[in-house]
Amino acid sequence: MAIYIYGSYMLSRQKTRKLLSRAKTLNCFLQRYILVSVSLRVVLMENGDSNEGYDPSLPVEKWCGDDRLYQWKGFWFRPQYLLGTRQVLDKFKPLPSDVILASFPKTGTTWLKSLLYSIINRSSGACLRSNHPHMLVPTLEVQLYGPQQQSFSNFASTSSSSRILATHLPHQILADAVRPADCRVVYVTRNPKDTLTSFWQFVLKSRSYEEPWPLEMAVEKFCNGVVPFGPYYDHVLGFWKESLERPEKVFFITYEELKDDTKTQVKRLAEFLGCPFNGDGEEEVLDEIVISCSFEKLSSHEVNKSSEHSPWMRLPMSSFFRKGEVGDHRNYLNNEMVERIDAITVEKFHESGLMYGVN
User: Fold this and answer.
1) What is the CATH number of domain 60-351?
2) Which residues are tagged catalytic?
3) Read out DSSP for 87-150?
4) What residues does the Sulfotransferase domain cover (predicted)?
5) The whole model's pTM is what?
């Protein structure tokens, strides 16, 4: 007879010891009073995760604290996102009119969600004031599929003719799903050092651990590619190469380009999406969108400052807004860290023609 005790990787050491102690007590009780031979197995899973469809043969690595990442098709996933990813590939049916926002985590996803929604819907700031960007543009493997999925049919029926969907999935995995539909893809990336810094800060503020996640460990994991949806460089290169092969369907943009000249880049995005700002009064609409989607405006809305947890993650809504600056890594990374990341960036990108991300 086997009894499974389900716990969580997120448990503190003290709580884990209590869990094991209770398991042993249960074992003794069953053997003494029920007279059965019991094999107790303690199964630790991610907080709130389902291991449905989990393949125990997948390579596994510790990532942050006791959190595990699982490697699938060359990329690393947290368990719930691996389940969501497999469901996306099995069930998601993209339409030719769909717009897919693809990104590596912490590269400007929230900002692009606001911009794309506003461009396509010609939306003023009113909608953004009352709705978090992640509620306007749901993420496939997080909100529409997986353990925390929301109603896809409801989203589809209330969206515009162009559904805007987001994903952190790499092109190498996503391609088979979206290429046949011939839909448009917008990919945003960010300097690897700022991406790492933002991701590290996001983890520190949005999760509770017995001990903080050392920056040195975060750098090590990032450089080795062992981060959710990583390796970062493979992720970027997948969409970069696809944008060169199919520029009419894949729009590649950097966070730095957007920050440097937001208005020009928004116009380029609108032209790519087939809804340029050409009509009477459209210049004013363009200016309104640029202002209403600025970091300063978005981060000032109560819905984005809320400490209330999102329905799809155990994270406060405010955790998706920090600084929105270019070059913030200089406040955290030392020279040795910068030189190491720059060397890897040159090595990974130099043959692709993507001259990006090095000081």
Assistant:
1) 3.40.50.300
2) 168
3) HHHHH----TT-EEEEE-TTSSHHHHHHHHHHHHHT--HHHHHHS-HHHHS-BIIIIISSTT--
4) 96-353
5) 0.81
